[in-house]
Amino acid sequence: MTDMTQDALPVEDSRTIAGVPDAFGRFWTPYRMVYIHGEAKPGDASVEQCPFCAAPGRGDQDGLLVHRGTTAFVLMNLFPYNSGHLLVCPYRHVSDWTELTQAERIEVGELTATAMRVLREVAQPHGFNLGMNQGEVAGAGIAAHLHQHIVPRWAGDANFLPIIARTKAVPELLEDARQRLWAAWPHR
């Protein structure tokens, strides 16, 4: 795990930038352009292009998997809203909650509850946002494959960056968070 006191993220003072200085520092995050432009995002509903269908076929580290269940699995969100942002997905490529079998609905719910317990143990969040966006118009980034978001929240974790700069500062690397959550997951 990286010690953030030694490896502080670079913030550029606006007085060093060409143009009219303002009171804001600049936290440059060019890697986010992949997300903004939708690169590597499935263009259609095909299984071949679906990152949620591909993830279980990879190793746990490479696929960012935290847990493999019987009908569903848990993985890190590649574009997290907060540290520890998890997704619960059925293995089957279905897009709507009503398409799940009873066994899938039960396991997605159980994995969501377990993820919350593990996150509480590992990261001590003050609360959670749970959500499932059904369809692109409802905000689903990948509408073709159902997924449940589990976003840990802390008092004061929201600031001006997402609103003003459309950027989220995530203080922990995905693999560091994945490893801690994977190690804490029950029944290994």
Describe the structure.
By secondary structure, this protein is of the alpha+beta class. It has a domain at 44-159 and 172-184: HIT family, subunit A (2-Layer Sandwich), CATH 3.30.428.10. 27% of the residues lie in helices and 15% in strands. The protein is built from six helices and seven strands, in the order ββαααβββαββαα. The two termini are 22 Å apart.
The shape is globular
Task: Report, as a whole number of angstroms, the end-to-end distance.
Answer: 22 Å
CATH architecture of the domain at 44-159 and 172-184: 2-Layer Sandwich
Number of DSSP E strands: 7
What are its keywords?
globular, alpha+beta, five-stranded antiparallel β-sheet, 27% helix, 7 strands, 188 residues, single chain, HIT family, subunit A, 6 helices
